[in-house]
Amino acid sequence: MKTRGITEGALFCALAVILVLVSYFIPFLVILVFFIPVPMVVLGKRQGLKVSIISSLAATILTALFLGPISAISFGALMLFVGCSLGFAYYKNISPIKKVIVGVVGFSVLLIAVVFSYQFIMGVNFTDYLFQTLEASTKEVMSFYQTSNLLDAGQLTTLQESMDKSIYTMKLVVPSAFLLMPVMFSMVNVFICDLILKRIGYSVQAFKPLSQWEMPVSLKYFLAIFIIGDFIIGIFQIKAIPEIYIYTFMVVVNIIFLVMGISLIFDFMEYKKVRNTGLKILAVFVAILLQSFVTLLGIADVYLGLRAIYRRET
């Protein structure tokens, strides 16, 4: 290993450990835990897979000195499965879609490992543990209001029904969350790594601007079939298909069309020559607040070609 590789390996190892400690000890910065792979990705691009793996192992050992072996293994797995694999993908300079797929696989392996560790090491079913925790919290809240006499009987009944409905919805959301989390965090890591590597002078295959995103024809017709199927299931009240499957799929479909709706908004802003970054960020926040409307815009654009209509004059 060259001296430069050793030096950079030590530097990025220290940076990864700092990210781990900051995300662990500062509660409002816990979101940084998902960016822990970034130093290993950049290192992998610069020095290759071997150096990034050695640096990840060193960072895991250092983390164990501060947080203990169990936490260190969790963070180390994040650096190895996601950071090193993505770093190798950047080293090979593959397409952005393939990089996201590599990241999704890495995050999925980590997520599955966490679930199985609860099951086989601790002897606890992860989803059962999650829902038991939620139900225990609900009972504590109800107990507080029942003993404090702040609400009358009718209000307590309404509150209990609202909480039961929330827990039921949470049970439906869990599968889609497990599906979408690896995709979301992989894309965020790829975007951040693209930005960093471009800043330090590397040429990377990046995504097209969001305004230029188009849905592949095959996916367009595939989703159309399932949207029609969901409509038919709703009209005829078909109960043969478990609700959790339909709910999970429709959450994924809605996210896809929400992204296409935001793409349409960005395209319209470019058409009107709006280049202010602050306004684009504001547009994203407004789109999330009005996600039902923006999702419909995305559907209309995909199947009716809205952006082609307002661009006809040019």
Helix segment tally: 12
Largest sheet descriptor: none
Question: What's the CATH class label of the largest domain?
Answer: Mainly Alpha
Low-confidence stretches: none
Overall number of strands? 0
What does the overall shape look like?
globular
Protein name: DUF2232 domain-containing protein
Transmembrane segments: 12-36, 73-91, 100-121, 172-197, 218-238, 244-269, 281-306
Keywords: Membrane, Transmembrane, Transmembrane helix
Organism: Acetobacterium fimetarium
What does this structure look like?
This protein has 314 residues and is mainly α. It folds into two domains: 3-123 and 179-199, Arp2/3 complex 21 kDa subunit ARPC3 (Orthogonal Bundle); 210-310, no CATH class. The protein is built from twelve helices and no strands. The mean pLDDT is 85. InterPro entries: DUF2232. The chain crosses the membrane at residues 12-36, 73-91, 100-121, 172-197, 218-238, 244-269, 281-306. Keywords: Membrane, Transmembrane, Transmembrane helix. This is DUF2232 domain-containing protein.
Q: What would the keywords be for this entry?
A:
314 residues, 2 domains, single chain, 80% helix, Arp2/3 complex 21 kDa subunit ARPC3, globular, mainly alpha, 12 helices
Chart the SSEs and their pairings.
Blueprint: H1 3-25, H2 38-47, H3 49-67, H4 69-91, H5 96-121, H6 126-148, H7 153-199, H8 217-236, H9 243-271, H10 277-289, H11 291-304, H12 306-310
InterPro entries: DUF2232
Protein name: DUF2232 domain-containing protein
Keywords: Membrane, Transmembrane, Transmembrane helix
